[in-house]
Amino acid sequence: MVHLRRSLAPYWWPIPRKEGGVWVIRPSPGPHSLAYSLPLALVIRDVLKYAKTMREARYIISRGYVKIDGVVRRDYKFPVGLMDVIEIVPTGEVYRVVPDKDRYYALLPIPTQEASLKLLRVEGKTSVKGGRLQLHFHDGRNLIVPQDVGRQIKTFDTILYDIPNKTIKTHIPLKLGNSVVVTHGSNVGFSGQLYEVVWTLKRRQSVVAIKRGDEERRTILNYVMAVGIEAPVIKITP
Question: 100-133 burial, b for 16+ CB within 10 Å, e for fewer?
Answer without folding.
Answer: beeebbbbeebeeeebbbbbbbbbebeeeeeeeb
